[in-house]
Amino acid sequence: MKSKLKIKSDIRYIVAFIAVLCAALFAALLFSLLPGWNDISEKDDLERRREIYRTYTTIVEAARNQDDIALKGLFCEKALEEATDLDSQINDLFDFFQGEIINGDTYRMAYGIFMEGGFVHPNTRREATYYIKTSERIYHLYFYGYTVNKRNPEEEGLYTIYFIDEEAKSVYDELTGKTWIYNGGKLPGIVIENADGYMARMQEAHPG
């Protein structure tokens, strides 16, 4: 009798497992058939990466050529409203970024897909980090922003462009143990950091 009860119990567990497995497979199939889902996960992946590279190229070329119009054109409406004196930030970048580019490589490139707008029209966010070596110094660049935001269209465009030189990056990494992006990433407009400026801020924050 106990053996029969055990067999029935085992059968119920097996049936429940099969039901859950079938439900998961059905959900995966449904998602794959939704309009735009395959495009987002596969076909558009290369184009999104190309878009990130085009953004990088625009930033660097605008900095080299001192093209303030091109830089402003990258930002979303929200960043333009929230940034503190973007014109001064742009001029500071022109002074900061010096030399002819010898090498520029990405070491972190990503985009996030958020289903706030549904599966057919999801919001997408881009961010990337680049190592840039010029004839004058070494820089690190990070930028962040939405390419598509159906819920908040004023956020479509870049929100942050963050430049830091190699010396400041080394100081920050050594003193904090954190990735340098956390120092200026996700702030509106253009953030620039060199070692002297960073050390001055650290001393002001921690006078002891």
Question: How would you describe this protein?
Answer:
The chain has nine helices and five strands. With 208 residues, it is of the alpha+beta class. It has two domains: 1-33; 45-205, Nuclear Transport Factor 2, Chain: A, CATH 3.10.450. The protein has a five-stranded mixed beta sheet. The longest helix is centred in the N-terminal third of the chain and has 32 residues, at 2-33. It is globular, with a radius of gyration of 24 Å. Residues 28-40 have low confidence and may be disordered.
User: What composes the largest sheet?
Assistant: 5 strands, mixed
Report the top-level CATH class of the largest domain: Alpha Beta
* Radius of gyration based on Cα positions: 24 Å
| Count of distinct structural domains | 2
What do we call the CATH topology of the largest domain? Answer: Nuclear Transport Factor 2, Chain: A
CATH architecture of the largest domain: Roll
* Helix count, DSSP H or I runs of 4 or more residues: 9
Q: In whole angstroms, how far apart are the ends?
A: 78 Å
Question: What letter string, H or E per element, gives the SSE order?
Answer: HHHHHHEEEEHHEH
Number of distinct beta strands: 5
List the main descriptive attributes of the protein structure presented here.
five-stranded mixed beta sheet; 25% strand; Nuclear Transport Factor 2, Chain: A; 5 strands; alpha+beta; 208 residues; 9 helices; 2 domains
